[in-house]
């Protein structure tokens, strides 16, 4: 079985390692020979926008998957299954279409307006009180988003972020917590939706609009966790994602769960599943896209916490790990990136422990001690 | 940091995966382009007995390690650290020298005779009642060994197994159980022995002289486990092994612990540490040979069991994993070998569970269900 991965970043790398363990032959199409997939033998370096590169590469694969919703899945030659499907990717790439699809299926999400004009954006501010303006395409980790409380804020956001078809303006949710639920789902067969497994709810904390830490158990009331899991599974089914997808949610005061956004691929909040779950998100992604039975997503440890290792400067990398490795119970995962940049995701640390507090303390201590 | 691994089998493969996760650049010298290290980019295919191959390969590495005590560590150019050290490997390769070294350090082991002649072997049988005759070099997994209860048995063993310097004849130990203890140890610094960590005792069960299953916790009385750990650490120190080493022991009636033999490398009984320990044997091997702080060897799950996936026929491999993957809580690890042979180690399954019994049941069910 040959699995093709479009993308040479850390998600492709960790997917490839999981696939190799199952005896799957992995081929990667990546823009560069260095970087996270460099330790792998079958990396084709080339421009995936070039059909003469993408076509022959894909045709040597039994199944192609992507590490980013922006990979050109729609240009893979017909006859090679692409998972998640092109329709799911297209719906998810555009935040307006993503919201519309979820609304069609009655899924809970923040009130929002697809503002085609500056006037509609200003009207949304008046209606909602405070809003988050989002670029329809290409926004992530705080890029392409702006929280607006005044008309001047909205005017500036319109100038910065609007595209030909406008801007997504969402009601600001005064959430109590952010959480994420990862789902793995097999392909639809004979019109029946694919079998799926749902990971435990992960609680997440962001700093500077970037994921700082994520941990499980999430510690919400059982009814809230059940609702988050229900919403996540229904969201993945509504979008017909195959493979793993993570649904990021707001938990509002009173316990309501609202979908923030969907990533149709392995996700940072679920990196802790490598060390903490019976079957990691990466292995279940491989199993799902190959239409193999899914593994148990449950935790095999009492608690786990993942903390990102972010770049803090510009330059070449020379890892100094001694202090990080000296923290008991912490697993250091570096991504093999040769160049560091401020805020670049260079790796992560997962700690497992008897309690979330202990896991978080260890993970933060070890992540802080990594020198790059 | 560039780590060279002499050997392209499953131990090299799993060591390489652990090293990559720590951002270490791995180079492998292997006899073949296919096989377990094939998914890795930096594999040099060549004859390691050829100095013109081994020399330049080793000189591109910061540290060289081996996946087998038979790798030509002694031919690596001076100036490149080889770990474990050449002296340790030389002492361990020859079962007579291995026993002699342990005896010098007062370590408990079966009574034995270095029989230089057929008559000495027969005298040992008379003295011990039942014996195990072992070829000095190259015996493993039941090859090169013979349990002898009669003179005719010893005569046959002498004919089959003796070398120029004779044969090792050991008293047969009517053991209650077999166990293994893995130790990771850093290099000696300024004449002081390297820091070491000792893994939990693993209980093992062999079938047809081959490892069938291994599990932890081992379930011996605490005093027996403490003695096994003490003996393992003292053995590794006596032999001055750097890296991981596994000490296989007999637990005799009454709880005495006797050293059976020593493997100066990652070991099959400790494969469960990938899924069950805070730090796997492979990661601690990498850390030890690079002289980095060692990780916590403790279990992060209540119980775990590993069962080997052995070949059952001759031919090409086409893995059928569906039934195995459907067993919850079982992690399947295949080694990417393209040819199957009867009894060849093709992979392993580790299950983690609340109890050893549940872990073993899951691991056996999943291993049995793998089709190759």
Summarize the structure.
2 copies of one chain form a homodimer. Chain A is an alpha+beta fold and about 375 residues long.
Describe the structure.
The structure is a homodimer of 372-residue chains. With 372 residues, the first copy, chain A, is α+β, with helices and mostly antiparallel strands. Chain A folds into 3 domains: 82 residues, Rossmann fold (3-Layer(aba) Sandwich), CATH 3.40.50.20; 61 residues, ATP-grasp fold, A domain (Dna Ligase, domain 1, 2-Layer Sandwich), CATH 3.30.1490; 195 residues, 2-Layer Sandwich (D-amino Acid Aminotransferase, Chain A, domain 1), CATH 3.30.470. Chain A is 30% helix and 29% strand. The first copy, chain A, contains 11 helices and 20 strands. In chain A, helix 1 packs across helix 9 and helix 3 crosses helix 4. The radius of gyration of chain A is 20 Å and the shape is globular. The interface between A and B is large, with 42 and 42 residues.
Radius of gyration of chain A from the CA trace? 20 Å
- Helix % of chain A is 25-40%
User: What's the β-strand tally of chain A?
Assistant: 20
Q: What is the CATH topology descriptor of the largest domain in chain A? A: D-amino Acid Aminotransferase, Chain A, domain 1
Describe the biggest sheet of chain A? 9 strands, antiparallel
Q: What name goes with the CATH superfamily of the largest domain in chain A?
A: ATP-grasp fold, B domain
Question: Please, how many domains of chain A?
Answer: 3
Rounded mean pLDDT of chain A is 95
Number of helices of chain A: 11
Strand proportion of chain A, as a percent range, falls in 25-35%
CATH class of the largest domain in chain A: Alpha Beta
What structural class should be given to the helix and strand makeup of chain A?
alpha+beta
Oligomer: homodimer
Low-pLDDT residue spans of chain A:
none
The general outline of chain A is globular
Distance between the termini of chain A: 37 Å
Biggest protein-protein interface? A-B, 42 and 42 residues
